[in-house]
Amino acid sequence: MGSPEQELLKKIDFDRLPQHVAIIMDGNGRWARRHGLRSRTQGHRAGIESVRAASRTAAELGMKALTLYAFSEENWSRSKTEVSTLMSLLRRFLKDEIPELMQNNIRLVASGRLFRLPDDCRRQLEETKRITGANSGLVLNLALSYGGRAEIVDAARQIAEETVSGRLKPKDIDEAAFTRRLYLPELPDPDLIIRTSGERRISNFLLWQAAYAEFHFTEVLWPDFRKRDFLLAILDYQQRERRFGKT
Ligand code: IPE
Ligand code: IPE
Ligand code: MG
After folding, report:
1. Whose CA is nearest to atom 12 of ligand 1?
2. For residue 106, which of 96, 101, 148, 150 is within the disulfide window of CB 3.0 to 4.6 Å?
3. Does domain 19-147+189-233 have CATH number 3.40.1180.10?
4. Where are the domains of the chain?
5. Which residues of 88-122 are buried (b: 16+ CB within 10 A; e: fewer)?
6. How far is the CA of 26 from the centre of ligand 3 (A)?
7. Quick check: is 13 catalytic?
8. Which ligand ends up closest to the CA of 71?
9. pLDDT tens for each residue of 133-178
């Protein structure tokens, strides 16, 4: 008998691995409360280890992409202190994580209304993207200041501008043309979307791309989410029959 993780690994069908997994990392605040900690921030801090574990697992299994919902457009309306702590944790993560990303051949990218991020965060994001830019393994996409509706509106606005200027003809606007104007058109649609903390909603995440995604919900709070939980989600996904509208 190997470790429980090794036993789970043996059950995974590597020919049917989800290529792109997206995670709604939820429950940091409740984790802090449950641990009797005074501030929600400590839950966010603890969640960083889960981000590391998830990226490592995705890279190790050989997935193409992992998208992590780190901060939504709506999260800007949280308290000023919570927002600024999240932003400084983000900046620190982007800097401190570089050796780990390099070691695991992970390329970091981001999607969302990134212009809304504080300057120091944006600069660090650009720097980390540049340094990891030639890595050929997992693409780790951080959804930051991200909203699914905002992404669709931003694409629609771009299409309108191109149409008005005559570069795009209305008859050429189809799903492929629309997809090309989303934040990261090169990423495949997510095969599997995981949400932690027992909530069962999409909270404005990847609305366009989720058209045929499978969903996995777990009660585990994000700071407790580890390799074992990720493997369980993949095994759950592998039980599903994906039909894409066919019989
Ligand atoms: C998820 O945890 C992290 C972010 C949304 C930034 P929450 O902060 O939403 O934690 P809960 O849902 O209040 O427990
Ligand atoms: C979704 O979690 C956003 C992120 C995980 C970044 P929230 O905690 O913000 O979502 P709601 O408010 O419960 O829907
Ligand atoms: Mg939450």
Report:
1. 27
2. 101
3. yes
4. 19-147+189-233
5. ebbbebbeebeeebeebebbbbbbbbbeebeeebb
6. 5
7. no
8. 2
9. 999 999 999 999 999 999 999 999 999 999 999 999 999 999 999 9
